[in-house]
Write a structure and sequence with these properties.
1 helix; about 110 residues; mainly beta; two-stranded antiparallel sheet; 4-stranded antiparallel β-sheet
Length: about 110
Amino acid sequence: MSPRRNRPKGAGFSGRNADDDGRSRYGGLQFTESWGGEQWCVRHVAGGSTEAKSYRCPGCDQVIPSGVPHVVAWPEHSGVDERRHWHKACWNAKDRRTTRVQRSRNAPKY
């Protein structure tokens, strides 16, 4: 059963067009955001893909398994190769993160 509509669909309907809502051709909400002196295209991905792909988040260096909602971001004037998949929390905290040196578990911390 589909949900009931509470607003009339008459000639004077001034609702938003399907093209105006910021949704990309591939699903998910897409917008631009400035970060690090650049404009970034950001797309929220629901994660319900049937492909069994996993991605590595550049914010926390952990794997994003397939089926997990996440964010895809890339510089506005770059190609497809620059897209990066982030956890939503890592993307939101990108300004508060510092550059971290990746060490092995047994490496000294000095």
